[in-house]
Design brief:
Elements lengths: L2 E4 L2 E9 L5 E5 L10 H6 L4 E5 L18 H14 L5 E6 L1 H12 L4 E7 L8 H21 L8 H4 L8 H12 L5 H4 L8 E6 L6 H10 L3 E6 L6 H4 L1 H14 L3
Parallel strand pairs: 3-4, 3-5, 5-6, 6-7, 7-8
Antiparallel strand pairs: 1-2, 2-4
Length: about 260
Amino acid sequence: MPVVELNGIHINYEEHGSHYGAPILLTNAFAATLQMWNPQFEALRDYRVIGWDMRGHGGTDSPPNQEDYSEKLTVEDMASLLRHLGIKQAVIGGLSLGGYISLEFQLAHPEMVRALILCNTGPGYRKDEARAGWNDFSIGYAKRFEERGLDGFGRGIEIDATRQYQRSAQGLAFAGRGILTQRDASVMEHLEEIDVPTLIVLGADDERYKAGGDYMASKIRNARKVVIDQAGHAVNLYQPERFNAAVLEFLRDNGI
């Protein structure tokens, strides 16, 4: 797996498919790694698909200070990786935290986004109380890694499929406190400004993200929502064939 030094850290990534195909950048969920996208790498072989590990995750560095982890730094890692690869514009996609960070990326670098693929994620919270509840959950997850090391993982098919690639419990804890937590409603407040084709994929059994998915579908002008039955949070792993078919149809329908 290639590793490149960008923004003061070594970022781990993989490229799959055709170097001549339209680029797709896929971002992992919290406490998962780029290997969660393995079922997509082959299915999307006509595209140039890049999977990468967020800081604190997998083969990417885990800087030693909490201030080295934030949504903004993660977004700039994505932009720097695309520039390193000579990519001016890409389809930007992710699951859960990876989907939210994809929305943050679109807000910061709209000129680099050709389309969005948002999987079982939400646009954040408008009310401070709801956001505080999410942040309590995120910090609690971080504390588990601090107290139990790499035995602090929660449950999830994407976590089970990738935990062997994790290297730093402290990195995951820092990421939980600095990247997974949220600070404002900026993403939610700018949804109506998104003007690129957007695919919203929901696993029918993942109740937590249903309302957020519905809200994004109602606000993003060029959005397509697909609900996949018999699928939980990591919809791309529960039903890879249906997920891949939905993604390929979306890309082809939009001339990508």
